[in-house]
């Protein structure tokens, strides 16, 4: 039996974006990613101390089970929900459930809100509060940052989040539907929670860090295809974005984050700096609140280009090849 699912897949994608734009994040009590975080926290507390006593190799082994097992389990559960909802509950319920699940895997509005909260404090010349609000979205020490360093951190966060918060989940949705998007989001959540390079997580979070790097590898490298056209649309310096991308993308310790960050630095003609770690771009223009706002605009346009120019075409091609009938068991 052959059933055309492409309309439902595309409609799910569009509804998920509408949910993100007009509603935003669900309450923490029912947010799937928050619940996944609680599972990670519980499992880590239970297994970390036990594995630590048995040596670093066993600690890596236990951390690897969590890093591989949890995304696989989440992906499988979401896959079963998707398939069964379509077969048993029908098209409408399938679209509603899929849209809600997909929305949980990415976030554009939340980043916009967080960055604008910091910008508002800077506008009000409240540097201490701006530092505190920035600390909610970055891992670096913020208590002594100047206004320019705060703006740099904001723009870096916006650029990096385009890949791991938007492009990557959409990439995996394009090939593996909501199961792929949520498996990725689980892996990324593991990375953010247990893949710190501090001593406590050095071995336990090793596999989580590796898998997140692997899963972001392709999305990070196709991100210029969406960010650079967005920079052109915003009438910023796309040629400099390409130049800085080539020159500075490897200056960041992260294997993937340097790509979108270098593009943003070049496109805005600014220098992004994390003290004692890296400098991306040239200070041709001063860091400003206006440029921070433009970075948000660039990523929103890039997300739209990604959906229209990549995700939808990929799902259509896979539909033509019969992939979705195989995937959903028809």
From TrEMBL:
Q: Which InterPro entries match?
A: Cobalamin_biosynth_CobD/CbiB
The protein, known as:
Probable cobalamin biosynthesis protein CobD
**What keywords does the record list, in alphabetical order?**
Cell membrane, Cobalamin biosynthesis, Membrane, Transmembrane, Transmembrane helix
Does Cell membrane appear among the keywords?
yes
Q: Does the keyword Ion transport apply?
A: no
Topology versus the membrane, per the UniProt entry?
A: Multi-pass membrane protein
Membrane-crossing residue ranges in chain numbering: 61-81, 87-106, 301-323
Q: Where in the cell is it found?
A: Cell membrane
Q: Name one GO cellular component term.
A: plasma membrane
Its lineage reads: Archaea, Nitrososphaerota, Nitrososphaeria, Nitrososphaerales, Nitrososphaeraceae
Pfam families tied to this protein: CobD_Cbib
Q: What HAMAP family has UniProt attached to this entry?
A: CobD_CbiB (MF_00024)
This protein's pathway: Cofactor biosynthesis; adenosylcobalamin biosynthesis
Q: Which family does it belong to?
A: Belongs to the CobD/CbiB family.
